[in-house]
Design a protein that fits this description.
The chain is built from 14 helices and 18 strands. By secondary structure, it is α/β, with parallel strands linked by helices. It binds pyridoxal-5'-phosphate. It catalyses: L-ornithine + H(+) = putrescine + CO2.
């Protein structure tokens, strides 16, 4: 049953149940798709890597957000994963959106979101995009330097401006402060110029770095923001919004959220509106990626005779594994289907397999079995096999894992899958070497409450 309720979730009773059910549904969706594909006869592209997206996971993350940070309205950072179904769901749940470009703003407006729910959170904006925001009535935007203020004065003089301040992002995965954020020494000058230009400064923004891990970075940033609010007040501004940016991760959220919530309450009265720009937090765990093994190479150590195997998949760092390069991720392979594994996802090796059993399992295979998976005397002992995992392009940096060991025999045509592939993956995929950057997504929804919201 999937009738577990939002109130159960909010009481904390239901989190495990939802996740368990989701795992099963994802497994079924992966299996269902690969069962339709026979890589030995299919058309080009049929065996392409594909995603399974669980919108129920996004929904659970939203409820978790509301439970832990009730005062802070999330504005989903579209850059992280501009998946149309995710955008639709979050729009229906009442979230706002952080957009970095004209295309992202367009995408969000297209699904019927009011422009007042969008923040153009890019301190250095393209002029033509700025003209577009004026036409579309998107007024909230960030800035962090004087030249941007002059540009805004020219093109969007009625904008609601958030001064983005510098943060200590040293404990984050992807540092942003080397590129953006006014230092605390410059905020007075920026506010004074904004006043002189008769611009509407409405708030302060910051970002503690993507994949932040030190809660004290939030504490410091919030107290710096308080100083800027006071500087602005002295100049006659009445700032009304604090934007605490992104940087949230599912794994550390329960530690970060209370620190941030407390810092906000300690520094800002309830009349101040608090928003955030979470990206990764919402989508990382919702997307699972399945990839097909297109080739295998045996490597024998000349000295020891030990064999290892290079597996080449049809997706790599120029595709959805761009997160390895840009987002410092280490995706972990899991076996979705091996040719020896007739049961697919729920692999269990319960029966002893005879030599003759193996002979029949080899039928229809391209390659002979690996050394380790032969049965002797009716007993199968499986030593872990050492693999490295590679992408499909001709470039040597296209490596997903230099060392992965598994007891499973993996062959050409088999499938691997990877959890947590929903953040900074497909959005930065390229078509290098002629491979596709448009991988299919199979949508499922493990939460009944979310299904109706996206018409599933
Ligand atoms: N807001 C801005 C301005 C960003 O640059 C980013 C990420 O680069 C985000 C929000 C989203 O960050 P995260 O995915 O860490 O929540």
């Amino acid at each position: 049953t999937d009738t577990h309720s939002v109130s159960d979730f909010l009481s904390g009773a239901d989190q495990k149940y939802g996740a368990k059910q989701a795992k099963e549904m994802i497994g079924n969706a992966l299996q269902k798709h690969i069962q339709t594909i026979d890589p030995s006869v299919c058309e080009p592209g049929d065996e392409d890597a594909f995603f399974v997206a669980d919108l129920g996971d996004v929904y659970r993350q939203h409820l978790r957000w509301k439970k832990n940070l009730p005062r802070i309205t999330p504005h989903f950072a579209v850059k992280c994963n501009p998946d149309p179904m995710v955008l639709r769901l979050l729009a229906a749940l009442g979230a706002g959106f952080d957009c970095a470009s004209k295309a992202e703003i367009e995408e969000v407006l297209k699904i019927g979101v009011d422009p007042s729910r969008i923040i153009y959170a890019q301190p250095c904006k393209t002029q033509s995009y700025l003209r577009y925001t004026v036409k579309q009535n998107v007024r909230q935007m960030t800035f962090d330097n004087t030249d941007e203020l002059y540009k805004i004065k020219q093109i969007a003089p009625d904008a609601e401006l958030f001064l983005r301040i510098f943060t200590d992002d040293s404990a984050s995965l992807c540092r942003l402060s080397q590129k953006f954020g006014a230092s605390m020494e410059n905020t007075q000058e920026l506010l004074t110029l904004a006043k002189k230009l008769d611009l509407n400064v409405a708030g302060v923004a910051f970002h503690v770095g993507s994949g932040a891990s030190d809660p004290s970075a939030f504490r410091k940033a919030v107290s710096d923001a308080r100083i800027v609010f006071d500087q602005a007040a002295a100049l006659g501004y009445q700032l009304h919004t604090l934007d605490v940016g992104g940087g949230f991760m599912s794994d550390t959220f329960d530690v970060m959220a209370p620190v941030l919530g407390q810092a906000v309450d300690d520094n800002f009265p309830s009349s101040v509106r608090i928003i955030a720009e979470p990206g990764r937090y919402y989508t990382s765990s919702a997307f699972t990626l399945a990839c097909n093994v297109i080739a295998r190479r045996t490597v024998e150590d000349a000295a020891t005779g030990t064999k290892s195997y290079m597996l080449y998949m049809n997706d790599g760092v120029y595709g959805n594994f761009s997160s390895i390069i840009f987002d410092h991720q280490h995706p972990v392979p899991q076996v979705l289907r091996t040719t020896y594994n007739k049961d697919g996802f729920n692999y269990s090796f319960s029966e002893s397999m005879t030599d003759s059993g193996y002979a029949s399992a080899e039928e229809g295979r391209l390659t002979p079995p690996l050394d380790n998976d032969r049965a002797t005397n009716n007993v199968v002992t499986r030593n872990p096999i050492e693999y490295s995992i590679w992408g499909p392009t001709c470039d040597g940096i296209d490596c997903i894992s230099s060392s992965w060991s598994s007891p499973e025999t993996l062959d050409i045509g088999d499938w691997l899958y990877f959890d947590d592939m929903g953040a900074y993956t497909k959005c930065s995929a390229t078509r290098f070497n002629g491979f596709t950057d448009r991988h299919m997504t199979v949508y499922i929804c493990s939460e009944a409450g979310a299904r109706a919201l996206v018409g599933m």
